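Re: NAP structure - here you go.
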Amino acid sequence: MSNKKIIAVVGATGAQGGGLVRAICADPDSGFTARAITRDVNSDKAKALAALGAEVVAADIDDEAALTEALRGAYGAFFVTFFWAHMSPEKEKAEARIMVAAAKAAGIKHVIWSTLEDTREWVPLSDPRMPTLMGEYKVPHFDAKGESNKLFTEAGVPTTFLFTSFYWENLIYFGMGPKKGPDGALAFTLPMAEAKLAGIASEDIGKCALGIFKRGADFIGKSVGIVGEHLSGRQMADAMSTAFGQSISYNAISPATFRGFGFPGADDLGNMFQFYAEFEDVLSERRKPEQSRALNPQLQTFAAWLAANKSQIPLE
Ligand SMILES: NC(=O)c1ccc[n+]([C@@H]2O[C@H](COP(=O)([O-])OP(=O)(O)OC[C@H]3O[C@@H](n4cnc5c(N)ncnc54)[C@H](OP(=O)(O)O)[C@@H]3O)[C@@H](O)[C@H]2O)c1
């Protein structure tokens, strides 16, 4: 029987958790094995993880008893919530409460909780610079995660608070890639003026998490920010111009204009970009590329990520 420690991974068929399962399976000397948690053990994505050597178990994070069972016998757990599946900060906080209870019941020795800043610490609800959303949030998908941090601490769950960054994959899957204007010229739009955006290849999040599990005790009770690079919209547009071999300009718009795009979540994301821009120093102080690279020597730069992924970015 293997004496490796089991890491149970929520969101294992998704971006963050999938990266961690793949990182563990690719590193036979890590001392860990991966247990992938999914709602559907028969999906193609779940089967692909099993083929890499992961144990695959079924649980829905809304079901505390099922999640507790899925964690039993594991040393570590990686927890991420899925805001965009329901867009409810209240539900996201409920999911975090279930994760805390399940980790405690299962006696998990090291949790990595994928979180983000509670922006209200810097922009109180009374601050008119950006609208208050859903009655009590500035950036709902940040604030619900940040507010949940204390649940782990209060319950005495040994936790590392992993502060992630903007996925560069949003250029592929979230409609944020360069767009052609009426004149046919390509432009990359971001509501951040010349401020820098903390960005990362989503696959690197799991690789950094494995680095944290390997150094266990160093990181329990600590907050760790991870980032690939801090780049302005202009720098990102220039890197894309180089990668695609054609001119892509930077189209700096205001956060208010972005909020007005009107798609579901546009107001949340407009506030998020405004927070990234106006609190650039806060974000970069916590997220150091050198520390992320120390955890994950394969950490990608934006240029390297573009070279590997540009064929998937639609230039429409
Ligand atoms: N996009 C960004 O730039 C960015 C940056 C930082 C943080 N985030 C945060 O990242 C989070 C999402 O993580 P992700 O991108 O890794 O997710 P993802 O790629 O969308 O994957 C979600 C996976 O989670 C599983 N899942 C969904 N609902 C579940 C449930 N009720 N119980 C169990 N599993 C469930 C699904 O797996 P099955 O179908 O197999 O069950 C799915 O494959 C969000 O909260 C978001 O705010 C995003």
